[in-house]
Amino acid sequence: MKKTVLVRDVKIGGNSPVSIQSMTNTDTRDTLATVRQVEKLYQIGADIVRVSVPNDESLNTIKELSKGKVPIVADIHFDYKLAIKSVESGADKIRINPSNIPQTAIKDIVKCCKERNIPIRVGVNKGSVKENSITPRRLAEIALENAKIIEDLGYDNLVLAVKTSDVIETIKSYRILDKLCGYPLHIGLTEAGTAKRGILKSAVAIGSLLADNIGDTIRVSLTGDPINEIFAAKEILRASGLDKNFVEVVACPTCARNNLDVEKIASTLEEMTKEINKPLRIAVMGCVVNGIGESKDADFGVAGGRDKSAIFAKGEILKTLPNDEVLDELIRLTKEYIK
Ligand code: SF4
């Protein structure tokens, strides 16, 4: 089991649930815009939010954010003094990229974090490593070498990450790192791309690692509005079986045997239950071929017939209804289950 690290009141590692992270894309000097974005991300499901701190003018925003509800990670590149100032301004964790922070500066950062027991994420990105021909093993080794520098300074309040923009390389790098260390791992791709393709790439990378029980906190890194990162991260955790508190609508793809408007029924139920954090499984099947089997695993559902459809609950037929009454009946049952 991985070590547990505390980011304000959010635990990463150990037996803690996999937490969701995102990152602001506002200008951090703009305190109001950044605070608003952090609050929005928190409202829709972020557990921790990272904020870039590229200059001294951004520190006031870190101070303001430290008074809010959301644990904040200060993201630091190049200027190690900004790491120290961010911690002094109230950051709950810092992320440093060892490839662009001089080793001689690490001891000052560690001293400051140690005094306040603030965790450090050592986040190695392949793109910023100066060596040629970086293999997944080498990437993992670089993360460990940097962790060792911090350990030798008497500090092990660490989270590690080894990101690339390539799905397979990232999976391989984390698998190696996971075997070699007891630190919690922040997993995800870097520069995954725009929403559609980036979500799919992230789902494969993060989902594969989570299926192997690797990863303690996730970030889906997407170009564009970061709220997409939270929706994607939540769906990845659900698809990986790590979040069961949601309404799952199982719907068949339909084929020539279909008797119902499966798409309309399924999307209506999904839309009406998207905010519900309760485990519930509804099956919408266009015919009886898979309908009976699916309904056994569902809380309730429908299997379409030519004119009438069977409404099931826990594998038992409740009633049969004309097909044009199916949607209303499923809406009624859904309301009954979630009230
Ligand atoms: S459940 Fe029936 S309608 Fe739906 S895809 Fe399967 S065979 Fe086709």
Task: Tell me briefly what this model is.
The protein is 41% helix and 21% strand.
Give a verbal description of the structure.
This protein is 41% helix and 21% strand. The chain has 339 residues and is of the alpha/beta class. It has 11 helices and 15 strands. The strands form 3 sheets. Strands 8-7-6-5-4-3-10-9 form an 8-stranded parallel beta sheet. A 5-stranded mixed beta sheet has the order 11-12-13-14-15, sandwiched between helices. The protein has a two-stranded antiparallel ribbon with strand order 1-2. The longest helix is centred in the middle third of the chain and has 17 residues, at 195-211. The model has no long low-confidence stretch (mean pLDDT 94). The chain has 2 domains: 5-239, TIM Barrel (Alpha-Beta Barrel), CATH 3.20.20.20; 247-338, Sulfite Reductase Hemoprotein, domain 1, CATH 3.30.413. The chain starts with a strand and ends with a helix. The protein has helices at 31-43, 59-66, 80-88, 103-116, 136-151, 167-180, 195-211, 227-239, 262-273, 288-297, 326-338; strands at residues 5-7, 10-12, 19-23, 48-52, 72-76, 93-96, 120-125, 158-163, 186-187, 217-219, 247-251, 280-285, 300-303, 308-313, 316-322. The chain is elongated and about 75 Å long. The site of iron/sulfur cluster has 12 residues, from α10. Iron/sulfur cluster (SF4) is lined by residues 252-255, 257-258, 285-287, 289-291.
